[in-house]
Design goal:
Order of helices and strands: EHEHEEHEEHEHEHEEHEH
Number of strands: 11
Mean pLDDT: 97
Distance between the termini: 17 Å
CATH class of the largest domain: Alpha Beta
Strand order of the largest sheet: 2-1-3-5-6-4
């Protein structure tokens, strides 16, 4: 029986194991998928020796720090600067990124107009995939992150008003801290806005709730999760 899994920390919010369990039962696939919470990425070697995984997904906070541990990284994942899917084959760890195609497909089904400007909230591994897709689609964007000049304290309402697409890539509001929400000028958001949150647990974060009160269109990360999971499955079986 083949074994797959997810590495990250924390993983209490993750729906991946349930998703693949349902998929395996529905399609009569003899495989398992487990969650492996690591304190540090350096513990990956011992995990792989013990578990003999055929492939695994990568989530916060290891999508970038896993790079030195991989034998090979496909060009798109290298260009993105983040890996969320690893294939274990022929004694090699090969890094891929399925977040980008999942975000792109989810975004294109969501948008009704081409935004002239976007804001990307956060600058971690998931954000890198979002930035890659926005560049590909010729959607200008600015990044808001606590470590950048444009941060949550310097974010002016005018920038929020002009950015008709806003994407949250941070874990703020994710289970179990479901009451937390990003501190942005919500008064500058209106019906012309498309708001995406990559979080899927809960299905409606406090951030999305506050945005929906302004009549903005909102979308959570569940559609994206399903797409990236299926894309990972294709990679593991290629």
């Amino acid at each position: 029986m083949r074994k797959f899994g997810l590495i990250g920390n924390p993983l209490s919010h993750s729906y991946s194991a349930r998703y693949f369990k349902n998929k395996f039962e529905r399609e009569a696939i003899l495989s398992t998928y487990e969650l492996f919470e690591l304190d540090r990425i350096e513990a990956l070697g011992a995990l792989l020796q013990n578990q003999k995984l055929s492939g695994f997904n990568v989530t916060i906070p290891f999508k970038e720090s896993i790079f030195p541990l991989l034998d090979r990284i496909v060009p798109e994942a290298s260009a993105i600067g983040a890996v969320n899917c690893v294939r274990c084959a022929d004694n090699e760890l090969i890094g891929y990124n399925t977040d980008a195609i999942a975000f792109e497909q989810s975004l294109l089904t969501f948008l009704e107009t081409h935004p002239k400007q976007a804001l990307v909230l956060g600058n971690g591994g998931s954000s890198k995939a979002v930035q890659f897709v926005l560049s590909k689609l010729n959607i200008p964007f600015r990044i808001v992150s606590r470590n950048l000049e444009l941060n949550f304290e310097t974010l002016h309402p005018n920038l929020v008003h002009e950015a008709h697409l806003i994407v949250n890539t941070t874990p703020v509001g994710m289970f179990p801290q479901v009451q937390e929400s990003l501190d942005i000028p919500y008064e500058a958001i209106g019906s012309q806005h498309y708001i995406m949150d990559l979080i899927y647990n809960p299905l409606e974060t406090a951030f999305l709730k506050r945005c929906s009160l302004t009549q903005a269109r909102t979308l959570n990360g569940m559609h994206m999760l399903r797409i990236q999971a299926e894309e990972s499955w294709k990679i593991w079986n290629s």
